[in-house]
Design goal:
LPS-assembly protein LptD; disordered N terminus; mainly beta; LptD_C; 4 helices; LptD; 12-stranded antiparallel β-sheet; single chain
């Protein structure tokens, strides 16, 4: 058995003689030894030398055994080894109730197979229901006489679910104590179980020494909570709680709240670090917090979909100062995107958005409602007067929309919507808006072309309750209005939009090789069989007339100022797909290997060119002496290359026909192999541009290099380096070393970024 079963092989490194005998007898115990003494009138039998009791898969071996026939108890002494209901035991002295499968061990070692836990204790008792209690014990998941890590305890127990509880315990590395816990509940089984999670330990120039100790609480099968005690020597104790809720596959929630009574205050920008002192705001408050969360579910009926986003924070610096760790901005943002597919506002955004969204859809139409709140950090903590906060709150928004569908008896298609909003603010406009936008299209499809003309009518009504004098408001770069121009009461606006889409697709398939045949001689063979090349030209045109007099209307959001459009956009896309065949050997019903042909397809290369021509810009007379007409947009060139599982390239570049140079560029090249790791390089840059239609005053050049290297069987080093080449400033550098062992991972990390340098250690003890 040794060497064939990985689990048993690991057991035998710790429990000697795990290959104990088995017997076909499953109803009674068999008892053999070198020497047995006793008679028919004796209360017990005594045996010496290779004493073995066995029944089915359960067996016990010892140097000496005394068996009490009336009670079924057996006393054992010397080199005791046992396989007992799937667990493996060793001891110097022991007693077992063979009828009820109970017993105790003195100076014993136990491997409890279900949670994969090793226990070495002065005294171990086995109770009904596969439960063990122990005194003066060492608990670990690592094999060997000196485990890599362990928890020692004065007493403890292991229950049926694999839950380990220890009292007056110490966490040890190579038998050296590094942390004391008066009580710990260590989850080791398959079920979610409450208990302390591994601490986060590190140091930071901004926060000082940091120790985050989380406790995980299983509320029920549908919900759990994690409590955080995050102590920072320079800032104090940050506490937090994370709640998760998932009663079914369509309902889930994740909410985090953290709070801190900060030792530091920044009453002026000069008190702040260089990376925080450029926003024109101060941070005099000690009471700091963040409440963030998302929810997907339903209300009343599963057809009524409910989504909620919450993002509220105490000040403009909180997320930037405490962005790392389990409760930091970076970790939470990744969780929200992965679990909900929705992002949160950027880390340095002074406007935090919270919303609740309710919707229902039918075959032809749908309805939705929304409440949205904007928290403006520029008007908190004395940075601005809250009564002068111009943030617009939407309370509520109601939508009715019709899906695109054919109009019966005609070639026309119809879609449209109606949207009602009530807006309010502390300082600014308050009022109502109703917007209708029916749209008609007429698809015309031929063998070679698809032509879709479209027309939309947009009618908007306003009722403005009040308008505070907020001074000038910048609608766009060259459009500045005076808020006093807005008229209260009833107003309306009418506009229309028109345009068309024209596109086609041409393709050709190239035969590269003869199709593979599923024969034994072709087993393991793979090759490209054919290549598909598709060309998709597309032209789109959009037109809407210029409107005047819109300054009389309230300005709630960008939809309240419509600009004229007269633009043609044209693009050409080339797509390359390959067909790959391979012959693999699979077992048939009789267990014989037979060749089977497998086929897969891969879109491995995409090339796209796109440009626009703005007819309004071509006829513009405004500011001609300062800005010449430039109706052609930059030419966008995009390349997506994925030829194999080893390499990928994404590249996007914008070329100005007027400047004769690239104005913006993004690319990332990656090479990777599962057994070696990966390397990647990226370069993004933007040039300053000063044109009538666009303006950028800063040059940005960002270089990113990094990778991961598995330089040994259980060692991996990772590097990620980002540098602003314009000013030579390091944006972020992270170096981490991961050491993977039988029962743990250790991650050492070093991270530098503007205003902070941090380092620390993370542990992953395989969910222990």
């Amino acid at each position: 058995m040794l060497g064939k079963d990985k689990r048993v092989s690991e057991i035998q490194r710790y429990v000697r003689g795990a290959d104990l005998p088995t017997t076909q007898e499953t109803e009674k115990w068999t008892f053999v030894a070198d020497k047995v003494s006793g008679n028919h009138t004796s209360e017990y039998l005594e045996a010496e030398g290779n004493c073995t009791l066995a029944m089915g898969d359960d067996s016990v071996r010892a140097d000496f055994a005394r068996y009490y026939q009336a009670t079924g108890w057996v006393y054992l002494r010397g080199n005791i080894r046992a396989r007992w209901q799937g667990d493996f035991l060793e001891a110097d002295e022991a007693e077992f109730d063979l009828n009820n499968m109970l017993g105790w061990l003195k100076n014993g070692r136990v491997f409890v197979a279900k949670p994969h836990v090793y226990v070495q204790a002065e005294h171990v008792e086995k109770h009904p229901g596969d439960t063990y209690t122990f005194r003066n014990a060492q608990v670990t998941r690592c094999s060997g006489e000196t485990p890599a890590w362990s928890v020692t305890a004065s007493r403890g127990d292991i229950n049926l679910d694999g839950n380990v509880r220890v009292y007056h315990s110490a966490f040890r590395i190579k038998n050296i104590p590094v942390a004391y816990l008066p009580y710990a509940k260590l989850p080791t089984g398959r079920k979610r179980q409450s208990g302390f999670l591994l601490p986060e330990i590190g140091s930071s120039s901004r926060l000082g020494f940091r120790l985050n100790l989380p406790y995980y609480w299983v509320i029920n099968d549908e919900a759990d909570a994690t409590f955080y005690e995050n102590w920072m020597s320079k800032r104090g104790l940050m506490q937090g709680v994370e709640l998760r809720y998932a009663p079914d596959s369509n309902t889930r929630g994740l909410m985090l709240g953290t709070w801190l009574n900060d030792k530091e205050v920044h009453k002026s920008e000069s008190d702040e670090s260089d990376d925080l002192d450029n926003d024109g705001m101060t941070r005099p408050n000690r009471n700091r917090w963040w409440a963030v969360g998302k929810y997907d579910g339903w209300l009343g009926s599963p057809q009524w979909k409910l989504k909620a986003d919450i993002d509220l924070v105490s000040d403009q610096n909180y997320l930037r100062e405490f962005k790392n760790g389990s409760t930091g901005f970076t970790s939470m943002r990744e969780q929200f995107i992965e679990q909900f597919g929705r992002d949160i506002d950027d880390i340095d955004d002074s406007n935090r958005t919270s919303r609740i969204y309710l919707s229902r859809s039918w075959d032809r139409f749908g309805v939705a409602g929304k409440v949205e709140y904007h928290q403006n950090l520029e008007y908190m903590n004395g940075n601005g007067d809250d009564d002068k906060d111009p943030s617009i709150q939407t309370l509520p928004e109601l939508d009715v929309f019709a899906w695109k569908d054919a109009i019966a008896g005609t070639p026309l298609e119809f879609e449209g919507g109606a949207k009602y909003d009530f807006f309010t603010s502390n300082f600014g406009p308050k009022g109502h808006r109703l917007d209708l936008n029916p749209s008609f299209s007429l698809p015309v499809r031929t063998r070679y072309l698809t032509f879709i003309p479209k027309g939309t009518v947009r009618q908007t009504w306003y009722y403005t309750d009040s308008q505070d004098d907020t001074g000038e408001r910048e609608i766009s770069r060259f459009n500045v209005e005076d808020s006093t121009d807005t008229e209260t009461g009833f107003k309306s606006r009418f506009n229309w939009e028109g345009g068309f889409s024209l596109f086609s697709e041409m393709e050709r398939i190239y035969q590269l090789n003869e199709p593979l045949q599923p024969t034994l001689s072709n087993g393991g063979t793979s090759r490209w069989v054919s290549l598909r090349h598709a060309i998709t030209p597309r032209v789109e045109y959009a037109y809407s007339p210029n409107l005047t007099g819109q300054s009389e209307l309230p300005y709630f959001d960008s939809r309240d100022r419509l600009t004229g459009t007269n633009k043609v956009t044209y693009s050409l896309t080339n797509s390359f797909d390959r067909k790959l065949q391979r012959v693999v050997m699979v077992a048939d019903d009789d267990g014989n290997e037979v060749p089977v042909l497998k086929t897969d397809y891969k879109d491995f290369l995409t090339l796209r060119l796109e440009q626009s021509y703005d007819r309004n810009e071509a006829t513009r007379n405004d500011m001609r002496s300062t800005y010449e007409r430039r109706p052609f947009s930059d030419i966008l060139a995009e390349v997506m290359l994925r030829p194999a599982e080893l390499v990928s390239l994404s590249l996007r570049a914008w070329y100005s026909p007027y400047l004769g140079s690239i104005t913006e560029h993004e690319h990332l090249l990656k090479f990777y192999r599962d057994d070696l790791g990966e390397i990647y390089a990226g370069l993004d840059f933007r040039e300053p541009v000063d044109e009538y239609l666009r303006y950028r005053d800063e040059r940005m050049t960002m270089l990113r290099l990094g990778g991961k290297w598995k330089f040994a069987n259980n060692m991996e080093v990772g590097v990620d380096w980002r540098q602003n080449l314009e000013d030579g400033r390091n944006v972020e550098t992270t170096v981490d070393l991961r050491w993977t062992r039988e029962c743990y991972d250790v991650i050492l990390y070093l991270k530098t970024e503007p205003g902070d340098t941090s380092y620390g250690v993370k542990f992953d003890l395989f969910n222990f």
